[in-house]
Amino acid sequence: MSLQALIRRRQRALFDAWVRDPLVQVQVEHPEALGRLVFLDDFDEDVQTGKAGRSSLKNVAIVQKPGNADENASVWVRAGYSSYQKAWLRFVEQVYGIKAAPSDLAGYNIDHLLNKARSPNKAGFIRIEAINDAVNQAWGGLFERAASNPEFSANQNRLRRTMSWIIAAKLMDQPPPRGPNDQQGIARLVQFFNQNGLAADNPQRGLTDMLQFAYKFQ
After folding, report:
1. Alpha-carbon distance 85 to 136, whole Å?
2. Side-chain half-sphere of 148: how many Cα atoms within 13 Å?
3. In angstroms, rounded to a whole number, what is the distance separating the alpha carbons of residues 72 and 58?
4. Distance CA 40, CA 134 (A)
5. What angle do CA 181, 171, 187 make, to 5 degrees?
6. What pLDDT, on a 0 to 100 scale, did the predictor assign at position 155?
7. How many CA atoms lie within 13 A of 188 on its CB side?
8. Is the pLDDT confidence value at 121 over 90?
9. Which residues on adjacent β-strands are paired with residue 132?
10. Nearest of 63, 69, 56, 60 to residue 25 by alpha carbon
11. Which domain of life is it from (predicted)?
């Protein structure tokens, strides 16, 4: 299996998990909280939180349980930890037996699913995944920069965050609208979510509310 195929499988598995349950975690306060928060409905003694290679648990943690690794294994890094690309590559080798180099990630960024600037004092642990390079840069230059405004109280205090419409769009290679007034761009995303099992969740309102809130200080 190629690394690119693995990336696409993991992206789809995480997106599908979020469609089933919107309380998919992307940030926690400490590795000790990972097991119960990642596996909210089926936590048991088989869930393990361990090291990625020789990295300290103070910086990197892998949480997993038996079964499909695309669904049951993830890697998390302290928001202030700089070697997160290496951490993801170690995770892939440790969990899937695939030894890859940074050059194998051409076209992808290893991304904090929640912008690390939104973690208070960069103290939380954030899930990382491979994201399309161009899509990731587009979201980072627009929504994520606005959403990281330190005036938002959540960016000063919240150490637990769940997946959002924005994170899900980025995960599934969907580029951002140009802003909260880009009705055509929002409509494109709404259509994508409607076609992927989320029509009943009112993606129009969810996306519009998130964009308007993020840009309120712009």
Report:
1. 15
2. 15
3. 22
4. 33
5. 30
6. 47
7. 10
8. no
9. 108
10. 63
11. Bacteria
Cα separations (Å) of 120 from 15, 52, 79, 136? 26, 24, 9, 22
Beta bridge partners of 25: 162
pLDDT of 163 over the 50 cut: yes
DSSP type of residue 50: E
Which tokens go with 134? Answer: 């161009």
Q: How far is CA 166 from CA 113, 118, 134, 174, 190, in A?
A: 10, 14, 15, 9, 11
3-state helix, strand, coil in the chain (%, to 5): 50, 15, 35
Q: How many residues does the chain have?
A: 218
Label residue 122 left, alpha or beta by phi (over 0 means left) and psi (-120 to 50 means alpha): left
Strand partners, 75: 62
Lowest mean pLDDT among 95-99, 190-194, 209-213: 209-213
Count of Cβ atoms closer than 10 Å to residue 136 Cβ: 20
Structure tokens that stand for 119 in this block: 């973690």
- Which pair of structure tokens corresponds to residue 194? 């409607």
- Domain limits of the chain? 3-172
Residue 10: CB atoms within 10 A of its CB come to: 20
